[in-house]
Here is the input.
Amino acid sequence: MTSRLTQEQLELREAVRELARERIAPRAAEIDQNAVFPRDVVELFARHDVFALIYPTEYGGLGGTLLTNCLMIEEVSQVCATSGLILAVQALGSLPLLLAGSEEQKQRWIPGLASGALLDAFALTEAGAGSDPAGIRTRAVREGDGWRIDGTKRFISQGSEADLIAVFAVTDPEAGRHRDLSCFYVERGMPGFSVARLEHKMGIRGSPTAELVFDGVRVPDANRVGEAGEGFRIAMRTLNRSRPAVAAQAVGIAQGATDAAVAYARQRVQFGKPIGELQMVQAMLADMATRTEAARQLLYEACERIEADAPDAARWAAMCKLFAGDTAMAVTTDAVQVLGGYGYISEYPVERMMRDAKITQLYEGTQQIQRLVIARALIAAQ
Ligand SMILES: Cc1cc2nc3c(=O)[nH]c(=O)nc-3n(C[C@H](O)[C@H](O)[C@H](O)COP(=O)(O)OP(=O)(O)OC[C@H]3O[C@@H](n4cnc5c(N)ncnc54)[C@H](O)[C@@H]3O)c2cc1C
Here is the structure.
């Protein structure tokens, strides 16, 4: 299981595991119940340089790879999927900057993101544009030496907490599909920007999911990332690197649920013996462990291929997200089954894990969209 991990990755994972188990696990049920963004977890990550891992060393980061970041998300998500998502979203919101930002933009923002002083978010989705970004209506129009942004974004993770939001807007409606979008960083406090509401959700309840309104927000041209018209390409390149982070969250949830089910099966006695000695329970545990490990190995392989700029990176990103998301849903459902009625109540963590698992089949492209990406890549390669 650890053969492909470097000594440094193993040590980092151990350190984050300890942090997660000692400091975050005791908070997980409360974060879920109160549905309040855990600022204390943000401070914990900042204090222990966990945010810094993914950023290049020349801007104050620690130069970690995609795999390193996924290992951290996996560890944290084992105990609290909301907290794992904080790391995933910080990476997601930074990716346009890392992939297409200018030197000046990187100098300006990465040190703050790496230290945790700044939080970010990624705003692609709108009410009429979910799976299909061609439905985006948010407009950015040239005005003097900058841009004026008008529109509304829906379902933006951490949008109400972020200092910096990557916003995708139509800049040239005539340019046609895939060439009409541009990407801008909108900063918290810019006049015209507001948070209209937060969603009430099934899972990841400590992560605020915001509706964001841009009402004539004036953004300097220095906040445009990449060329005008390059937004769709930037968004797709971002998803190639952020889908593995969702897969890592899913693997973490699945591992957390497996561990909880095994521990319960060892101590719960029915018919005079621990239920872990009953073959039908053993079969569930065996399937849970096997599926989780298979998802993990696919994720690690995908991370290495994407990091190496493989030409079929999009397919690998989609495959690991698809398989890990379905694994998390199946494994958490079985974990509830192993615990019987106790699995269904909030005294045990598996009901929360089952609710949290569902989102990994939905965001950053639904499982249907992942299948489309995979199949199209296969057909195109023939
Ligand atoms: C909690 C949460 C957090 C989120 N965070 C963010 C975020 O930070 N930033 C952001 O930009 N977005 C975010 N999203 C949005 C998320 O990525 C979208 O919800 C998702 O991409 C699906 O879009 P939709 O909800 O509009 O569903 P739709 O696109 O309307 O899909 C509805 C159904 O139709 C299916 N479908 C659609 N098109 C096809 C097709 N071509 N073939 C087959 N089936 C299809 C879908 O798979 C789905 O089953 C978040 C969503 C949630 C719920």
In short: The pocket of flavin-adenine dinucleotide is lined by residues 122-125, 130-131, 155-157, 201, 209, 359, 362-366, 368-369, 372 (CB under 6 Å). The first helix runs from residue 7 to 24. The domain at 121-228 is CATH 2.40.110.10 (Butyryl-CoA Dehydrogenase, subunit A; domain 2).
